């Protein structure tokens, strides 16, 4: 999240009479109950009663009878199919989320990599606990598959492309109609403030969005988030997983409510699976794109940087993640050519050998390796749940390739770039991540990495790693 993002939104709220002190606007028949909202506001901070919950929503009949949001906890494929067919098939908007076992690897199979699937409509939440299903060739049944593959049914969530990658990898479901709430959140927030250059596709945590637009904090306790999702759910897990999916549904409708009030009103963001830019309203002028943040969920790799340099050398404009109307493109401030890039005339001798930049460009044109997609999924998920992490994406990507697939650093180097990175570079990436983050490691494999580095350098530059290696060696 960009620096000042939260502060800017808070200033907007204060300027408008501090509407965050009141319930969010009603967007469905099931609405936040005023008394329950204010009770949460008055509850001690961080207490269970202080958090946003689907249990605070009701539908009121004309005769005054109230209806709660129903939660269906399904522990068999048969029950999942019945609930999807009876209650979710035919809905045009659904909240969607997944849970999986922390530290699961691809070879661990579907039950650990897609342990729990959550769907939410305004009146119901479905929790489909695949980890408890009996083995079946089709673990999810036809109704859920139809819902997820229908582009006319909007499924919304945070880091939804990562979740869809898991569905494709482990259930052979090609999900369509996906809306990344982070994109809609930034469109509404920055169009409202006029800071269009800050609109990008970096993920924004669900808790941040709920706090700012649904006006209560969302519980994101690490103990529940990292708990074992392969066993029958405890009540705190049921509440946590149900709230996530239902929050996504209400965020979409609430953000769309605010989007429609903008003047000029920008179009709805595109489906995430299309990988299109975030659209702006017709006629909006962007003064500069020089200060725009990262345009993708994942930070650029060295290949991306080389390819970008190649575009600059060729006199081409790099493409931004913000769609700018043609009539306004002449108002963009041109990006100056970096002084470090020297223009060298091409000669027959020089053209025989492709430049690093051209090799990088060809690398970007190759189909993306499925293992890279899974690693990028883990990177985006980690960064969304650990916003304070300072590890860069290329280092984390290397770690997840090394950890999930048990690859040696030489193989990771080949996957990350063509021509390959130096093995020692990948080793340094891995040691840096282990040093900085509390991520799981195999201590035998960690000792193999440490063998690449002189002991004095290891203890000076990566003291945490050196301690782990010494401890595991002593233990053996």
3D structure, described in words:
The chain has 476 residues and is an alpha/beta fold. Helices cover 44% and strands 9% of the residues. It is built from 20 helices and eleven strands. A six-stranded mixed β-sheet has the order 4-7-6-5-8-9. Strand 6 (116-120) and strand 7 (124-128) form a beta hairpin. Helix 18 (443-450) packs across helix 20 (463-475) and helix 19 crosses helix 20. It is globular, with a radius of gyration of 24 Å.
Question: What is the topology?
Answer:
Elements: H1 5-15, E1 31-32, H2 34-42, E2 57-60, E3 66-68, E4 70-74, H3 77-88, E5 93-99, H4 110-113, E6 116-120, E7 124-128, H5 142-149, E8 154-157, H6 160-171, E9 178-180, H7 181-193, H8 206-213, H9 222-225, H10 235-259, E10 278-279, H11 302-313, E11 322-323, H12 348-351, H13 356-365, H14 370-385, H15 393-404, H16 409-416, H17 423-436, H18 443-450, H19 455-461, H20 463-475
Parallel strand pairs: 4-7, 5-8, 8-9, 10-11
Antiparallel strand pairs: 1-2, 2-3, 5-6, 6-7
Low-confidence stretches: 1-17, 288-354, 356-366
Helix content: 40-55%
Question: Which oligomerization state do the chains in this entry correspond to?
Answer: single chain
Terminal residue distance: 43 Å
Mean pLDDT: 81
Structural class: alpha/beta
Find the count of extended strands (DSSP E, 2+ residues). 11
Give the strand line-up of the largest sheet. Answer: 4-7-6-5-8-9
Task: Tell me briefly what this model is.
With 476 residues, the chain is α/β, with parallel strands linked by helices. The chain has helices at 5-15, 34-42, 77-88, 110-113, 142-149, 160-171, 181-193, 206-213, 222-225, 235-259, 302-313, 348-351, 356-365, 370-385, 393-404, 409-416, 423-436, 443-450, 455-461, 463-475; strands at 31-32, 57-60, 66-68, 70-74, 93-99, 116-120, 124-128, 154-157, 178-180, 278-279, 322-323. The strands form 3 sheets. Strands 4-7-6-5-8-9 form a 6-stranded mixed beta sheet. Strands 1-2-3 form a 3-stranded antiparallel beta sheet. The protein has a two-stranded parallel ribbon with strand order 10-11.
């Amino acid at each position: 999240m960009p620096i000042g993002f939260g502060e800017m939104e808070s200033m907007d709220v204060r300027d408008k009479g501090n509407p965050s002190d009141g319930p969010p606007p009603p967007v469905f028949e099931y609405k936040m109950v005023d008394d329950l909202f204010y009770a949460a506001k008055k509850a001690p901070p961080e207490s269970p009663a202080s958090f946003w919950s689907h249990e605070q929503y009701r539908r009121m009949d004309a005769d005054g009878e109230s209806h709660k949001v129903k939660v269906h906890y399904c522990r068999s494929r048969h029950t999942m199919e019945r609930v999807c067919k009876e209650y979710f098939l035919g809905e045009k908007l659904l909240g969607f989320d997944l849970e999986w076992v922390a530290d699961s690897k691809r070879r661990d199979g579907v039950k650990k990599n897609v342990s729990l699937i959550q769907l939410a409509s305004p009146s119901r939440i479905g929790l489909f606990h695949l980890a408890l299903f009996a083995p079946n060739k089709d673990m999810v049944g036809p109704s859920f598959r139809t819902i997820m593959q229908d582009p006319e049914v909007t499924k919304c969530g945070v880091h939804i492309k990562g979740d869809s990658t898991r569905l494709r990898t482990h259930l052979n479901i090609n999900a369509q109609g996906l809306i990344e709430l982070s994109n809609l959140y930034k469109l509404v927030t920055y169009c409202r403030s006029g800071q269009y250059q800050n609109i990008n596709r970096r993920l924004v945590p669900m808790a941040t969005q709920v706090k700012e637009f649904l006006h209560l904090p969302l519980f994101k306790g690490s103990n529940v988030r990292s708990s074992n999702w392969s066993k029958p759910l405890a009540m705190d897990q049921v509440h946590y997983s149900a709230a996530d999916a239902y929050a996504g549904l209400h965020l979409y409708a609430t953000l769309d409510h605010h989007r429609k009030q903008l003047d000029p009103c920008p179009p709805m963001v595109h489906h995430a699976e299309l990988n299109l830019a975030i659209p702006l309203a017709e006629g909006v002028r962007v003064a500069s794109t020089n200060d725009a943040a990262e345009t993708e969920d994942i930070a650029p790799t060295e290949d991306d940087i080389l390819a970008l340099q190649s575009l600059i050398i060729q006199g081409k404009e790099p493409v931004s993640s913000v769609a700018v109307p043609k009539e306004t493109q002449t108002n963009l401030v041109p990006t100056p050519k970096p002084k470090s890039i020297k223009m060298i005339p091409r000669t027959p001798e020089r053209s025989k050998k492709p430049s690093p930049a051209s090799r990088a460009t060809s690398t970007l044109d190759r189909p993306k390796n499925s293992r890279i997609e899974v690693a990028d999924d883990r990177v985006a998920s980690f960064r969304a749940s650990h916003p304070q992490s300072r590890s860069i994406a290329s280092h984390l990507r290397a770690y997840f390739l090394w950890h999930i697939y048990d690859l040696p650093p030489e193989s990771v180097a080949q996957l990350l770039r063509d021509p390959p990175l130096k093995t020692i570079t990948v080793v340094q990436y891995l040691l840096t991540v282990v040093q900085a983050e509390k991520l799981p490691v195999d201590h035998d494999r960690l000792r193999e990495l440490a063998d690449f580095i002189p002991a004095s350098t290891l203890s000076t530059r990566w003291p945490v790693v050196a301690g782990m290696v010494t401890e595991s060696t002593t233990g053996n």
